[in-house]
Each structure stands twice: as structure tokens, then as C-alpha cells.
Amino acid sequence: MAGGRTTAGRSVTARALDVLGAFDSSAPRLTLSEIAERSGTPLSTTHRLLGELTAWGALARRPDGRYEIGRRLWDLGLLAPVQLELRQVAAPFLLDVHTATRDTVHLAVREGHSALYVERVSGRESVPVVSQVGSRLPLHATGVGKVLLAAAPDDVAEAVLRAPTRETRHTIVDPGRLRREIAEVRRRGYARTAEEMSLGTLSVAVPVYVDRPSGPAVVAALGIVVPSHRRDLLRLVPVLQVAARGIGRELARAQSFH
Questions:
Q1: Cβ distance 151 to 208 under 8 Å?
Q2: Cα-based angle 143, 133, 177 (whole degrees, multiple of 5)
Q3: Can you tell me the distance from the alpha carbon of 194 to that of 226, in angstroms, rounded to the nearest whole number?
Q4: 191-194 and 136-138: which strand pairing?
Q5: C-beta separation of 23 from 69 below 8 A
Q6: How many angstroms separate the CA atoms of 26 and 43, rounded?
Q7: DSSP string of the chain?
Q8: Higher pLDDT, 106 or 83
Q9: What are phi and psi of 186, to 5 degrees?
Q10: What does 45-65 look like in DSSP terms, one character per residue?
């Protein structure tokens, strides 16, 4: 597909990427007309590109006629460094935390103004959560997100705090209050939330540091989500901190071989 040009001056590759970009966490399955509308691509062009992308494995067509991301794109995504190296290093530590707590354990990195969830371990006893591996959730409304926001550059923090979205009735959206909370996250070394992203849940999260020549750098956030009736949330902080130090140590060791 690469190299061709459309009459509108956009390459076929760009059109194909527009089609793939129509999918997101809020719309993982789309019809032909929905893809055309969301991508701004003519219906006939969309139909042709969908055929080529499906044949290659980038997309899959469901029995109901809707399209979804195909296995081949998923396999390629797992090769991305943030997915491959971080997940491989962190997976045993997340499993240890889950085994000890039976709660949902998350690992996330910052991607722009969102928290990108790169790994999750949960079980039948874990409280249901909205996040999945690969999902992006607001920095200001999640435990891992607040940790990442506290470590983000000033311009990113200001952009997020300028217009925070309300995810539930408990989401903190007052910029001044959020600034004070983020400052407190930096001071105490962990973040917590109470039903700010999902009703009926609490969360606590800590940073994952890697030593760099310029000093320790936050590369990820590790968090736990528990039911809102739990009263031992802060007792989980040391458990997370031990795991986070292990992840950071092993990640630094892995990167030193590169």
C-alpha cells in the first residue's frame, strides 16, 4: 500500500492509518460506515482499504459485519519497547503483589496526557475495573495517573490541570485542589483515589524509579485497586514500594545490557 497517492494528495498509507486510527478504547468494534465517518475517508475507499487491512491481518471482520483490530497488529504492538521490556521485567512482581493481596494490580506509563496501562493482573476475587492492558485513562482520575502526573514536566501537568474531565461524581476537577494533591503525592511518595474513576473502588499507587546519570527517573507507576469498603488501603503502600523497587532494579539491569 505504501507509496501510492490519492487524488486528494494523501498517500494510501496515510489513508490506511486514518482507518486504523478510527478505533479506540471507546469504539473497539465499528461498521464500515462508522469507520468511514470517523476516519474522514470516502466510503468506497474505506471499503477497499478494509479489505486489504483484513487480508493482511491488521483488522478482523466479525460475524455481525463489524470490524475490530486484528491479531497481527496486537502481535506487533507487543514488540514495542514499553510493552516488551517493561512487561517482561514487571510481570513476576505484579503476580507477587496479586498473590499476596488478591486485588487487581496495574502497571502504567504516561503517554501524553493519559496513563497507558501496559500490564494488569486480576482474579475472580478482584473488584471489577474499567482499565485493560492497552487502555488509556485520565492522569488526574487514577492512582497510577496521579503518580505519573506528579512526575510529569510542568507543561504537561498544567495542560492536564487546566481542564480536568469529570469521570464520576467523586472526580476531583478543581485545578487548585488537584495541584495541592499532586504536590502531596510528590511529598509522600504515593497517590490514592476514592471512586474517582470507577464507583465502588479505591486505589493506591507508587512510582517505579530507574537510576539515570541525571538522577532517579519515574518510568512507570504501580497500583492496586480495591473495593471501596476496604479500610486497609495504606497498608498496601509498602507492598507496592517493595515491588516497585524490584521492577526498577531489574529494569535498570536489563537496560545496562543494551
A1: no
A2: 20
A3: 10
A4: unpaired
A5: yes
A6: 22
A7: -TT-B-TTS-BHHHHHHHHHHT-BTTBSEE-HHHHHHHHT--HHHHHHHHHHHHHHTSEEE-TTS-EEE-HHHHHHHTTSHHHHHHHHHHHHHHHHHHHHH-SEEEEEEEETTEEEEEEEE--TTSPP-S--TT-EEEGGGSHHHHHHHHHS-HHHHHHHHHS---SSTT----HHHHHHHHHHHHHHS-EEEESSSSTTEEEEEEEEEEEETTEEEEEEEEEEEEETT-S-GGGGHHHHHHHHHHHHHHHHHHHHT-
A8: 106
A9: -60, -40
A10: HHHHHHHHHHHHTSEEE-TTS
The per-residue pLDDT for range 163-192, each reduced to its tens digit, is: 899 999 999 999 999 999 999 999 999 999
Q: Above pLDDT 70, what percent of the chain? A: 90
Task: Write phi, then psi, for 55 (nearest 5 degrees).
Answer: -65, -35
What cell numbers appear for 193 in the block? 483515589
Can you say how many angstroms the Cα of residue 106 is from the centroid of all Cα atoms in its chain? Answer: 9
Site of grid cell 497517492: 5
pLDDT 10s digits, 143-161: 999 999 999 999 999 999 9
Which percentage of the chain shows pLDDT scores above 90? Answer: 65
Does the pLDDT value for residue 41 go beyond 70? Answer: yes
Judge whether 184 and 125 are in contact, CB under 8 Å: no
The Cβ-side half-sphere exposure at 233, using a 13 Å CA radius, reads 21
Q: What is the pLDDT of residue 76?
A: 80
Indicate the pTM of the whole model: 0.72
When pLDDT is cut at 50, 70 and 90, the band that residue 7 belongs to is very low
List, in order, residues 6 or more apart from 37 with CB less than 8 Å away.
none
